[in-house]
């Protein structure tokens, strides 16, 4: 179990204080609207050690642009492939060039004059 960085930094400062001292200090210096987190002992998770103010980074607002980006990108994981027909992409006249040309023996698109000519057509080389 890794402790958060902010808690690791605070531990040396809080080690000499008692539970009552911590509670009194937090109650007197903390505004009522600031959220707090409970800190529990590692050996006995049911025993509460103290409460500390929540780190500011956890109380900051959400950026709508980041929420939108994450939501959009996560929804892309559920996409399903689709096409007009089952053999879509396989209806090219591609043939292998054979050996002796210093290229892989994968079916290649015929023709010339376009970027597509000579490209591997439907080989799975993985």
What's the story with the biggest beta sheet? 2 strands, antiparallel
Instruction: Give the % helix.
Output: 25-40%
Which word captures the global form?
A: elongated
Strand content: 5-15%
- The structural class is alpha+beta
Number of strands: 4
Assembly status: single chain
- Helix count equals 4
Question: Could you characterize the architecture of this molecule?
Answer:
The protein starts with a helix and ends in an 18-residue tail after the last strand. It is built from four helices and four strands; from the N terminus they run ααββααββ. It is elongated. With 126 residues, the protein is an alpha+beta fold. The mean pLDDT is 76. 2% of the residues are buried.
Question: Descriptors for this entry?
Answer:
alpha+beta; 29% helix; two-stranded antiparallel ribbon; single chain; 126 residues; two-stranded antiparallel sheet
């Amino acid at each position: 179990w890794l402790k958060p960085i902010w808690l690791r930094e605070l531990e040396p400062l809080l080690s000499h204080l008692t539970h009552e001292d911590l509670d009194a200090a937090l109650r007197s210096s903390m505004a009522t609207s600031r959220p707090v987190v409970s800190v529990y002992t590692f050996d006995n998770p049911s025993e509460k050690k103290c409460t500390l103010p929540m780190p500011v980074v956890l109380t900051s607002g959400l950026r709508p642009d980041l929420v939108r980006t994450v939501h959009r990108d996560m929804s892309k994981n559920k996409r399903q492939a689709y096409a007009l027909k089952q053999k879509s992409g396989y209806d090219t006249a591609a043939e292998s060039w054979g050996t002796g040309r210093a290229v892989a023996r994968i079916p290649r698109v015929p023709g010339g004059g376009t970027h597509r000519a000579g490209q591997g057509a439907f080989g799975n080389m993985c």
